């Protein structure tokens, strides 16, 4: 499902225009992003949680040349599905 598909589905289900649905989806995504940027976690009961994890710097290899390269430390978004979501998927 793409963002456009999501907007279309929200518009249809909520009986609103696509423009309003797109604005709503943007607000939700922006809220999630800004909350994660602040280092906070987001828990949506029955769905799952979003968190930011720290990855340490490490050494890797360029697969083409085999040359060793340094991979810098970074923060990555992480999603952990909730129990209800897992159960629905594994029915």
Notable features of this structure?
5 strands; HU Protein, Chain A; alpha+beta; 91 residues; three-stranded antiparallel beta sheet; two-stranded antiparallel ribbon; single chain
Write the layout of secondary structure elements.
Elements: H1 3-14, H2 18-37, E1 42-44, E2 48-55, E3 58-61, E4 68-71, E5 74-81, H3 83-89
Antiparallel strand pairs: 1-2, 2-5, 3-4
Helix pairs in contact: 1-2
Determine the fraction of residues in helical runs and give it as a percent range: 40-55%
CATH topology: HU Protein, Chain A
Tell me the strand percentage band. Answer: 25-35%
Number of domains: 1
Largest sheet: 3 strands, antiparallel
* Uncertain stretches: none
Tell me the radius of gyration.
19 Å
- Specify the CATH architecture: Irregular
Q: Order of helices and strands, N to C?
A: HHEEEEEH
Q: What is the highest CATH level, the class?
A: Few Secondary Structures
The shape, in one word, is elongated
Class per helix and strand makeup: alpha+beta
Total beta-strand segments: 5
Q: What's the CATH H-level homologous superfamily?
A: IHF-like DNA-binding proteins
Instruction: Write down the overall mean pLDDT.
Output: 94
Distance between the termini: 21 Å
């Amino acid at each position: 499902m793409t963002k456009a598909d999501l907007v279309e589905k929200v518009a249809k289900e909520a009986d609103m225009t696509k423009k309003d649905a797109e604005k709503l989806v943007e607000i939700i995504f922006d809220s999630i992003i800004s909350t994660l940027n602040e280092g906070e976690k987001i828990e949506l009961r029955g769905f799952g949680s979003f968190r930011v994890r720290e990855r340490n710097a490490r050494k890797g290899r360029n697969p083409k040349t085999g040359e060793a390269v340094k991979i810098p430390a970074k923060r990555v978004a992480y999603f952990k599905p909730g129990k209800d979501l897992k159960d629905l998927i594994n029915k």
